[in-house]
Design brief:
It is a single chain. By secondary structure, this protein is mainly β. The protein has two domains: 109 residues, Beta Barrel (Thrombin, subunit H); 68 residues, Thrombin, subunit H (Beta Barrel), CATH 2.40.10. The chain contains no helices and 14 strands. The strands form four sheets. The chain has a four-stranded antiparallel beta sheet, with no helix packed on it. It has a four-stranded antiparallel beta sheet with strand order 5-6-7-8, with no helix packed on it. Strands 9-10-11-12 form a four-stranded antiparallel beta sheet, with no helix packed on it. It is globular, with a radius of gyration of 17 Å.
Length: 197
């Protein structure tokens, strides 16, 4: 298969995918093309705000249509579904968490959830987000900070970010991680982390 940028092609380097728990749709981050491809597995496509029976649609962020975004560069580095079929993405340049509500609006009407530049305990130069997951209540958002060997948790109710796992040093002790990448959370709110140690 050859990489491409048409509707039937992907171009992947550091891709990720997620499944909508409500509709079984599969979303794939087509990272080199700066878009998200969603494959609708349901026979009822109205959940995606479409009137036809198409099984695929593309989310490509358009900065002229984004709302409440402080520094959006439109370089999606990671994405995940929330519990209510909304989609969360991280801008890979500004490390800003953004949310697309459901029905998905093809990259329009995106709102900012959290910008890590406001997190005083962090140097953005060291922050490398390689994983993202949202609990089923959408009250907690977890990101894996690959460069600092930690998992961070954003709490919606308090609008605070805290270190959830890790002490900033790579290792295999009970309070350490080493370059965490993908993370997932189940409906019981158990977090699973892919780490080299």
């Amino acid at each position: 298969m050859t990489a491409g940028n048409d509707d039937n092609s992907l171009s992947l380097s550091n891709s990720t995918l997620d499944i909508n728990r409500n509709t079984d749709a599969i979303a794939v981050l087509d990272d080199n093309n700066g878009r998200i491809i969603v494959f609708n597995q349901s026979t009822n496509s109205t959940s995606f705000n479409q009137s036809n029976s198409s099984t695929l649609f593309i989310i490509a962020l358009d900065s002229s249509k984004l709302t409440n975004i402080s520094t959006a560069y439109n370089r999606t580095s990671i994405m995940a579904y929330g519990g209510n079929s909304s989609m969360y993405i991280v801008d890979g340049l500004s490390n800003e968490i953004m949310k697309i509500n459901n029905p998905l609006d093809f990259g329009e009407n995106v709102t900012s959830v959290y910008n890590f530049s406001t997190y005083s305990n962090y140097s953005l130069s060291n922050l490398t987000v390689r994983g993202l997951c949202v609990d089923n209540t959408e009250e907690n958002i977890f990101v894996s900070d690959y460069g600092n060997h930690q998992i961070l948790r954003y709490e919606k109710n308090t609008s605070n970010v805290m270190v959830y796992i890790g002490n900033g040093t790579a290792g295999d002790a009970s309070d350490q991680l080493s370059h965490p990448t993908s993370i997932v959370i189940n409906n019981n709110r158990t977090l699973y982390v892919n780490s080299s140690q």
